[in-house]
Structure formats: C-alpha cells, structure tokens
Amino acid sequence: MEFYFLLFLAGLAGGLFSGLLGVGGGLVYILILPAAFIHIGIPVQEIAQYTVANSILGTFFAASFGTVNHIGNKEFYPKAILIISLSAIIASLLTLNFIVNTPFYSKEVFNIVVIILLVIMLLSTLRNAQRQKFFVERIRFIKRFFGFTGVSAGTVAALTGLGGGIIIIPFLSEGLRMEIRKAKTISLGVISITSLSMVLFNMFQQPMFPLDIPHTGYIVFQVSIPIIIGTLISATFGVKLSRRISVSTISYLFSTFVLIVILKKLFELI
C-alpha cells in the first residue's frame, strides 16, 4: 500500500509542476519510476525503456489537463502547437524505434543522457530568468524555427521521458523572445499531442524480456495508474498557481528541481 501511495504522491507533484512550469511532469516521474520498476521486478536491462514509456504516459495526462485549463481561459495557440507537434511526433517515434527501445539504451546510458540535457537546460533557464523582466515579445511564426523546435523536443522527450518542455520553453523564450507564460502554454499543448503518439507506440512494442505482471507493451498500469490519479488532481491547480507567481520565480523553481534530478541521476551512476 505504501508503494502505491508514493506513486500517487509523485503524480500529485508531477501534475503540479506540469501546470506550473509547462514541462509535463516528467521531471518528477523519472525520479521515482526506476525505483518502482526495480521494486516490482522489471529486468534491469529494460528499466530505461519502461521508465520512458510510463513517464510519457503520466506526462500525457498532466499536460492534457493543463492544456484544457488554458483553453478554458482562452490561452491557446493552435498554429504554433500544430507545427511544432508534427515534427516532434516524427522525431520522437524514430528515436523510440531506433535508439530507446533497443538493447543499447541501458539505464546507465539513460542517466547520462538525462544529466547532459538537464545541465544544458539548467544553465539556459538560469540565464533566461535573469533577463525575463527585460523581454519584449516580438514573436514571428517562422515555420522553420518551429519545425526545428519540434524535432529537438521530440527527440529529447523520447530519450528522457520528460515530455520535451525543457526544450520547447527555452527555445521559444530565447529564440523568439516569447514571454515565458505563452511559451509554457504552447509547450503543454505540444506535449499533449506528442506524448499521446508515443504512448500508443509503446503500447504496441514487444519488450525484450518476458514479464510475470500485467502490462501492455512497455506500459505497466499498476505503476502508472496511481501516478495518473495524482496528476489529474493537481494539474489544474498548478496552472492556476502559475498565474500568481512571477515569471522569474517560475524559472528559479524549474532550475531548482532540474538540479535535484541531476544530482539524483549522478548518484545513481556512482
């Protein structure tokens, strides 16, 4: 019972961070999922694959509820979301098929990839936080730039299970000087669409090692359902909270949690 309660708490935290930061909740999920899968006997050779797949599932629900809330408040940008999502879907599915869901992508490789990407994003976010109050929004809907953003976000989402928001938000806020709240809204929309495609893909995959517990492809519902329930409870609250907190505070909160994840993954490697 304690095991499922911890997963539920992870869902609460993931949903809150998703609505608040626009990154989909994966930063929380990838902290707890590897330990959860070891606990229920998932072969260590496929911990990375199960972690990515189930983190993306939780991320889908977290981002979707945040997006619904934004739509209700007339904060929705379908053109940007669609363009970025199309390229993100292609990149994410190719990455899953040819890199992640292969024997090469071990837990150690997964941790190294997560650490490298998060260090880059941490430095970028801290630099961005210092400049937020001087930003002047001058957005141009450049299809080529959005396409590049989508490819980068989709690749990172598939490699890490983080959903792609850690790429989308810095790219839009720095590359287009987009106000971070708008970038966060677009990020949640893109994550909703992209993560759904990855969830469906992973449900029809054949794991390399047989399991004695119920599963659908790489999706293990006894682990993911408590996370989803917690996520659904807190995601809307996170969106509401983000409207009451300054942009720089959101950036520093994001940076703090990224640092926690980096330290945790370094500890796992050691």
Automatic annotation (TrEMBL):
It holds the Pfam family TauE. Keywords: Cell membrane, Membrane, Transmembrane, Transmembrane helix. Belongs to the 4-toluene sulfonate uptake permease (TSUP) (TC 2.A.102) family. This is Probable membrane transporter protein. It is found in: Cell membrane; Membrane. The chain crosses the membrane at residues 7-32, 47-68, 80-99, 105-124, 145-173, 185-204, 216-239, 245-263. GO terms for cellular component: plasma membrane. It comes from Marivirga aurantiaca. Its main location: membrane. It is a multi-pass membrane protein.
